[in-house]
Fold these 3 entries.
Entry 1:
Amino acid sequence: MQQPSLDQPSTEAGSATGFRMEPLYWLLPAVPLVIVLEYAHAPAMWVFLASCVAIIPLAGLMGQATECLAEALGSGIGGLLNATFGNAAELIIALVALTRNEVMLVKASITGSIIGNVLLVLGLSMLAGGLRWRKQLFNRTAASMGATLLALATFGLIVPTVYYHLLEADPHVRQALGDRNRPIELISEEIAALLALTYLLSLVFSLHTHRHLFAETEPTEAGHAVVAPWSLRTAVVVLAVSTALIAWISEFLVGSVEGARHALGMSEVFVGVIVVAVIGNAAEHSTAILMAMKNKMDLAVNIAVGSGIQIALFVAPVLVFASVLMNTQPPLDLHFTLMEVVSVVIAIVVVALVAQDGETHWMEGVMLLVVYVMIALAFYHLPGKL
């Protein structure tokens, strides 16, 4: 949930001349490459790898176009646009996977995105910023609220999982409940509705009623006026084209997952939790790190924690309801593996501890990254089917 007052990472002076050829966009040649590989019937592993690379700059273009629209349309609508399109790449990939009934991959990407944002993105940002600045400050109120929202969302994941393992997994308990036994899908839909409602209320809180609580802790640098690099029309065109290309390439990525994971020796849950989650968030990863290196830790924390909130409170419920409309088999529910739930809980606890004092240094970044690597290793060694 990126706040509008903090969410201007790419609209500083000097960008008004038009397209900014950032290192992220050097990967754009991968877009035609993956199209050629797909229609040339190249091995699945190469199609998968090229698709992963191609989605990264397209997600960056989508993010930049959204920021331009936010600047042109004002803070209220702009905040809503950033909240909606902040994780559009992950949402598109997940929707494409749902059309192919890749439910396990989608569920793994949900938890992987939450873990990746609050551990990997935030850890890299704190490390990169801390190596350049001895101590960095951020808004403790905003960070604490973000951690609290993530904790609430985690509880929404725990309840269906506990219900499944304590009730549905035990035939004797299920038989004893009889007609009172509610299917896990129905409980997931009810909880998804509550999570979505909480997300909408959090937007009202942060963008309207208590916007003053989310002010930046760092003073704005003099001489750096905020200007939109693209016109409104250009931003709309770029947003539409990049969204369409991501949807198209996501078809290639999801279609090649099965062959690629066998070729690379990876389990399906590892691909979802680590690979797909990192690819979908790559553009935001780079932005958060760059902001931290510029001593804008408020923005870096807001991007990392806010993106995790979007995934848990917005993307996950949307995918649950989309699964109902698509009638996917099996349907998408909020019952996750115990390893996924435990990993998310650990991630939220760690970020809550980090957010307590409103300041950070490079060693805190190292600690977050170490936790992320340990979780990644655990998922890598898990069997293919849980």
Entry 2:
Amino acid sequence: MLLRSWIESANAPDHPFPLNNLPCGVFSTTGEEPRCGVAIGDYVLDVSSLEETGGLSLPGGPLLDVPFWNELMEAGPQAWAALRNRLTEVLAEGADDRAVVEPHLVPRAEVVLHMPFLVSEYTDFYAGRHHATNVGTMFRGAENALPPNWLHIPIGYNGRASSVVVSGTPVRRPWGQVKGPDHAAPAFQPSRRFDIELELGAVVGTPSDGPVTVAEADAMIFGYVLLNDWSARDIQAWEYQPLGPFQAKATATTISPWIVMKAALEPFRCSTPPREVPLLPHLQEPGPMLYDIALEVALQPECGVEAVIARTNYAEMYYSAAQQLAHHTTSGCPMNTGDLLGSGTISGPTKDSRGSLLELSWGGKEPIAIAGGTRTFIEDNDTLSLRGGCRGDGYMIGFGDCVGKVLPALADPYAR
């Protein structure tokens, strides 16, 4: 049920940032340096200044005197719980400490949002069965849609942490090498099949050194963000055999500006689907590991009307973030505070629940309708927005929009 706050805007049933949520971000105001903040209703609570003035004390602190959440994340679950408990106490309706907290509130309309954490490493997975089946059917036929290993392990690849950006950052259409017609030489040109992937990103809080169980992996996760893994499909089609995506995925990965802590999502846990092939013991779940998070994708042409082109749910995933993280460690690979794990494209069973334009337009063969036209892939100056939230009893848990506008490709970078 809704936890009521003395900040009235946080009590609205459709507001994304009630007291139940308390997501973590980094913000700045005019003339001020970025600092840590927590969204509550129509405000951002400046927890950096609140900690500095003694209104917030955390075990092992100070932890919020830097413009990123990594130090709190590394401090572990005890510190995470202490933060939520203290903020819930001072922001609750009738709180005695209102006068201590109120001077540290900043209207959210007046802030600029920044990357909420320092990304240590980035790994992207291919763990949605509907997406994998759709893509496999397009390229290999329905009988061979899933690779032989797909039902046994969450497949992934190491991506580029350096190109992870926060929502609102423009994305430039990339150049790359694409396959030529028939047996002609490949061409170096701007991507003509630029796409999005609707994903959820898990943010690793506590590090590991050696294999961990699924339960231990779940305890390591600090929280979640919406994630758009921009993909140049024509570059990918030429480069991916035999080692998988490389430059096609290196342009940018956009994340939403607020980390929704795992604790806020606990009421919405749900189970992964039944297994037609039993998983090996080290990947089996000790309990529900997914979340009931409704998701949507919207596309807005320049000077045009926005259209929602897909709706789906994170509950459609085949492998959870905890399973992905546990699998990542099986080789002994250390995981670091600030590691980011992309879920893989989240698609549902129906055409309007597909989480990429590749699927929605079926490889470009079936254009999708938008206001005033159609799309197969992203055109210049299109703005793509990912949204998501959980619906509780009289409240919701929102992530903040994950937005990126695609700018035209630059002139040939190698022209002299």
Entry 3:
Amino acid sequence: MRSRPTGPGSLAADLVSAFKLRIGVVITASAMGGIAISPGPLPEAHRTALLALAVFLASAASGAFNQLWERGLDARMRRTAHRPFVAGRLRAGPSWYLSILALLIAGGGLAAAAANPWAAGYTLAGALTYALVYTVWLKPRTWLNIVVGGLAGSFAVLAGAAAVDPGLAPEPVLLAFVLFLWTPPHFWALAMATKDDYARCGVPMLPVVMGDAVSAKIVFAHALALSAIALLPALFSMGAVYLLAAATGGAWFSWKCWILVREPTKRNAIRAFLASLSQLSLLLAGAVLDRMLSELG
């Protein structure tokens, strides 16, 4: 699986990149947000930890598949030209695909054991949506690719929620919808900053198809919608901590997107992209902290 010797630090960095573990952390945090925001008795700590690991493994499997499948495309883009499969530091081959399949099965099986078949189904649905529906089918064909790809994060929320109650209360359903709306503007902002790469490679990302000015307005509209919907769980069981986190993150993301509308530059696109990460971090942390405080109270 390795093409040439590298130091332990270099190999670790390559594996983090190949499995897209940073995205895996976000997906796992979304599952934990799904648990926290769901009314009902929380799963035991060890079951929660095992479900988190299951979601992380499934996300890592889909991330590695994405990098394997797209290594030809990555080689033609400046932003991705140094990824390990492209640069030859990791050798693509059948052993990788078998390892990815094993990792995916392990993630699904662990989710079933830690929670229930519903949680396992949502975990696998998220990974397969990203790997097959987004990467293989939609990304080369339509600018709507990341809209459907956003379901990966939504399924993670539902996986966490199903561990509390497979019936799914309104709060996790709303949070899953927020994740669905969050992923496109998050990625489109980055795509605006790297539009030349996508245009040169013929990938129909939104900024390539519709231009920066229109894309910025669509990003802003998504930011407003998801920020408003993120407040709605406070009408049900979530408290003031969640509401403050959701309002603060939503206002910050929306403001940065409004700046992008006024001046759709690469610099402002990156700032909107970073603001989207801040918004999601605040939202999920607010959900977890709010639930922790309610359990202590």
